[in-house]
Amino acid sequence: MAIPIPTDIAQMFDSYGRQARLFPGLLTIFPPLLAGLAWFPSFLLSNVAATLLTLAMACGLLYALGSYARTKGKRIESKLVKSWGGWPTTLLLRHDSELDEHTRLRYLKYLAREVPGNLTFPTVQEEQTSPAGANATYDSAVRWLKESARGKEFAMVHLENAQYGFRRNLRGLKPFALTLCVLTLIIMTLAILTKVPGLVEFVRTSNLAALAKVVSDLGPAILSAFVINVFAVLVWVFVVTNRWVREAGNQYAYALLAVCDMKPSTLTKGKKTV
Question: Which UniProt keywords apply (predicted)?
Fold first, then answer.
């Protein structure tokens, strides 16, 4: 009996999985794939290519891609958290938090009352004496809050969490993605030079007429793919940075801690959906 294979992406990934895992993986391979499509359009649009793509998807290519993105993201996450001095949520609960004192104390009061186990938060002196121990206490409270803030009632939390996961996983994929794009540009450059042997001379002598003919002969598809790969390299280098991930982490931290200000009945309802 044939085993039914889900082909709908929605069946393989939930909303978070698509945004935080699948999309980073697809963005990583998109520029090189676009270059391949530009150079070999007849093959990639043929029945053979369609069959190979269908088989790859049936064998879990998209799922593997999303899983790889998450793995790379989690690996870089531990290094990022160490460089930050702790999780953004934890840092907001500490005495040296950027949160205003009234809001911070309100959050701590709520967590001290609701978190099971009679959790006691550290004093200023205890934070200074044992930063790791203090962070562990805050981390425990945040873990409880994360588990409690599940369900459609906490849409903003889920939205910011997906945004953070998206950026974190892109940052984790950055070395691999840059390598792919640079290799693609090198191969495309060599292919163009092979196809147009006099290109270097045309550029050196500023032969605009010859360059215009080269552009016309190469066609918009190849040139567009080249430009997109160059643009992708710039984005990976200057946009996908540790700071970019930290900004999303802070936004998620604020959204998660804001759950403490929600009505107890709403939070209790959220806990039942865990």
Answer: Membrane, Transmembrane, Transmembrane helix
